[in-house]
Specification:
Number of strands: 6
Order of helices and strands: EHEHEEEHE
Mean pLDDT: 79
Shape: globular
Low-confidence stretches: 96-107, 116-122
Oligomer: single chain
Strand order of the largest sheet: 2-1-3-5-4-6
Strand content: 25-35%
Length: 122
C-alpha cells in the first residue's frame, strides 16, 4: 500500500483538490492519500516547509510527500524529487525570479528547514 501526503495552497472550496486526488487514485487505486494542509497562503513556502518538516516523520518510511505551493499552472514550472530519511519528497520549483526573491529574504530560515532533510536528489 502506498501512502501519499498532500501539502498545497489549493484550498477546499473548488474542484482542484478533488481533481488532484482523482488523478492520483486513477493511477494508483490502492493509494492512501493523507491531507497535511491545503490552506497554505500563496507564496508561503516557508510555512509549507514548516508544516511538512513537523509532520513527515510521523509517517511510515517510503511515504511520498507531494508539495505544491502557488504553481499557478505555469508552463515554466519544474519539479524536484528527493529521497531523505527514508521518505520521498516531490515539489514544484517556482520560477527563477520568485525563488531569487525568497533566497534573498529568507535564505537562513530556508537553509535551517531544508538542512533537516539533507537528502539525495532523485
Amino acid at each position: 500500500m502506498s501512502i501519499i501526503t498532500l501539502t498545497t495552497d489549493l484550498g477546499t472550496t473548488d474542484f482542484y483538490l478533488a481533481a488532484v486526488k482523482g488523478s492520483i487514485l486513477s493511477a494508483m487505486p490502492d493509494a492512501t492519500i493523507v491531507d497535511i494542509s491545503h490552506h497554505i497562503p500563496p507564496y508561503q513556502i516557508i510555512q509549507a516547509a514548516f508544516l511538512l518538516s513537523n509532520a513527515y516523520y510521523h509517517f511510515p518510511l517510503e511515504t511520498v510527500h507531494l508539495v505544491s505551493i502557488d504553481n499557478s499552472y505555469q508552463s515554466d514550472a519544474k519539479f524536484v524529487a528527493l529521497k531523505a530519511k527514508g521518505h520521498y519528497f516531490i515539489g514544484i520549483v517556482i520560477p527563477e525570479h520568485t525563488s531569487d526573491l525568497l533566497r534573498q529574504r529568507s535564505s537562513d530560515r530556508v537553509n535551517k528547514l531544508m538542512s533537516s532533510f539533507s537528502g539525495d536528489t532523485l
